[in-house]
Prior knowledge:
Flavin-dep_Halogenase_NPB; Flavin_halogenase; binds flavin-adenine dinucleotide; alpha+beta; FAD/NAD(P)-binding domain; Tryptophan halogenase; 3 domains; FAD/NAD-bd_sf; nucleotide binding; 7-stranded mixed β-sheet
Amino acid sequence: MPxxxxxxxxxGGGTAGWMTAAWxxxxxxxxxxxxxxxxxxxxGIVGVGEATTPYLHVFNQVMGIDExxxxxxxxGTFKFGIEFVNWGGAGRAYHHPFGxxxxxxxxxPFHSVWLxxxxxxxxxxxxxxxxQSLAARHGKFMRPSGANSPLADLTYAFHFDASLYARYLxxxxxxxxVQRIEGRIEQVRLTADxxxxxxxxxxxxxxxxxxxIDCTGFRSLLLGEALGVGFEDWSxxxxxxxxxxxxxxxxxxxxxxxxxxxxxxxxxxxxxLQHRDGxxxxxxxxFMNEAQAVDQLVANLEGPPLADPRLIRxxxxxxxxxxxxxxxxxxxxxxxxxxxxxxxxxxxxxxxAYLQYLFPDKGFSDADRDLYxxxxxxxxxxxxDFLILHYRxxxxxxxxxxxxxxxxxxxxxxxxxxxxxxxxxxIQEIPGEQFRIQSWLAVMWxxxxxxxxxxxxxxxxxxxxxxxxxxxxxxxIARCCDxxxxxxxxxxxxxxxxxxx
Length: 501
Ligand code: FAD
């Protein structure tokens, strides 16, 4: 008879390790299941991962996290989306906002009627129909309020200091009963059937358990190294494999959005926090060497650096399985997709949610593992396709890197979406998928893809009535934006950190 699961061992205490430990500590509170987390201060955490998606609200709500308290602690700000500068072509910019633009026109979805209008009126912008976009542009922020107006549907995420976030999660986890062990894992001991029996730590200590969650970061010490699960490399589609990261001082108000600026062989991020900006250059080493990249990053900073730039090397792809035997990998140990759409923390949450759904009580079932691997595989693939779209769909051809992106082959799943859009402006939406129609629309349109013709049913609408309807929508959104306080006033009033601490 298989033994009951009585001890969960989380290996690694970055964002992935602490989010997993906190979640299961809450879920299993009052049961005989014990949760132990092993981490090494000497090794440390990757220390980036500062921009999120609105999915983090789910985690905060389940954990009972007070949002103002969390932002104060992590010196966080609010995020309405991402501004993409120079991606579609030099000198062009667009916003990928959270939340849906506009409303549907009776039975016709917003995007099909708007595309009809926009194809005939190229100066119209999608931003005018999305309150998040407009508020971001004007540096405004508030939480949803009221009813029957776009203010009620405001959708936002956060920026925060990654090291402070790990500390915050640690506090929550330890308060919920997670036992933290400081130590370096030196060996992963296996049983005769190849499952993990325990971890041997420095100073002769060991930690045994029933299920092991590998959150050891890029190294994937348990799943990758000890269990030998291979890696599926996606760098032919996403060739960036390095990042330089550096914080800078900021003079002025933090903007309520992440900025991503395309560069010659990659892109640069800027993430505004209360006390500093996070910056980094993600680049492809096949097209630009590390020295050139750091020079380019430093030359394009908007404030004085607060530390020396730090190099992070990575490989894009995912483990062929993320659950093998009695080991589940979560976070960087499971795979990596560059942070262009801030999706890694969201994928950590997905991994936790699927594991909760399939959490074992006694032994392990192949059916559970297979479902978990299939579900997580799909999650990574959808994000992968969405990221490739940014590189593939633009009009940049001004460097070897961009010429490579323009000519590389892409997954059939993405090609099908592009074909569908370029024909009649149709957008595939798969139930449960993180990126909804509005995200695909914002990026496809923003990158410069255009349908050959509008949806034929949208062409049956009366043009004057449609123009009036769209003008009214723009007007309501503009008035809502005027009403909103500034992002910095909102922070000052609700969640300003004590920066003298
Ligand atoms: P890590 O933070 O690396 O933690 C690994 C843990 O394992 C550490 O505690 C370490 O001490 C421990 N460990 C390792 N080996 C041992 C050992 N032998 N013994 C004991 N302990 C060990 N994500 C987003 O959502 N938004 C972003 O904006 C974003 N930006 C990013 C930018 C870059 C350049 C990169 C590389 C990633 C970014 N990410 C982003 C991803 C994000 O940083 C990670 O998903 C997140 O931090 C989780 O990391 P982790 O916990 O898996 O790994």
